Amino acid sequence: MRTIRNRKRTATIGAAVTAALALALTACNGDDSGTKSAGPASNSAPAAASQPAGTAGSSDTADTSGSGKSADTATSGGGATEAVNSSTGKSKGSTAKTGGNVSDSYAYKHPCKSADLSVRVYARQGSATQHVIEVNNTGANACGLSYFPLTSLGAANAKDHSGDIRPLVPGGLGGAPAYPVKPKTAAIAVIDLNPSGASGALTWINELNVLADGDHMPNAETLNFPLGPDVKVLDPKLGLYRGTVADAVSSMKQADTKS
User: Fold this and answer.
1) Among 144, 130, 107, which Cα is nearest to 239's?
2) Phi first, then psi: what are they for 242, rounded to 5°?
3) Handedness of CA 85, 88, 89, 90 (dihedral sign)
4) Model confidence over 130-174: pLDDT tens digits?
5) Closest Cα to residue 239, out of 171, 137, 161, 170?
6) In this structure, which long-range contacts are made by residues 120-126, counting pairs with CB atoms below 8 Å and at least 24 apart in sequence?
7) Cα–Cα distance, 181 to 134 (Å, whole number)
8) Sign of the dihedral defined by the CA atoms of residues 101, 103, 104, 105, in that order
9) Helix, strand, coil abundance in the chain, percent, nearest 5
10) Rounded CA gap, 246 and 253, in Å?
């Protein structure tokens, strides 16, 4: 009986030792397999670690712009383009219009051209005999006109204009070589068809002929303006170019010389 018990005890102890050894081997094998699963470091890992902070954000901005450039690049590029356009006068500013020569000295050396002028004639408000001659400079530069427009009064349907009437103008002229007109401004002259209002006035006249610059423009550039019916002309007077109607009227009243 004692022999049988000793064998059972020995078998139990052996089984226990075997189980303990198996558990130890299992634990060792588990640690080894965990180390092997990590494997070698990935090639992309060092690149991601060495990338400067914020670079990924810039890449995202470039992708969303759709142009392959970051937002900062697009902005600075637009600024550079705008600067180039401004220097060539192509911007939407007013460089093209305001970049002309507007000085009087420039105007003295550059007579006005008909293509850069618009001429109007209209009755002066409050007067039955006076008309305003308004010459507007529509060009980009200042230009010079003669001291007064070259004018004559006649019949529109006349074949011979040798009998047209020329008004008196102020005498004793001198000074600057021309009357300067800046861009977008007007030179104004006033003509009075019948200053005295006396009887015996001519009634066949119905047209006012105007040459803006009699010193430099050919007669072919003369413009004709109808005066309407019932016009009476007697000893007409014409003033010098001035900046306002009031000043032009004052000049007209000093007319005493044949033009």
Assistant:
1) 130
2) -140, 175
3) negative
4) 999 999 999 999 999 999 999 999 999 998 888 999 999 999 998
5) 170
6) 121/208, 121/210, 121/225, 124/190, 124/245, 124/249
7) 12
8) negative
9) 35, 20, 40
10) 11
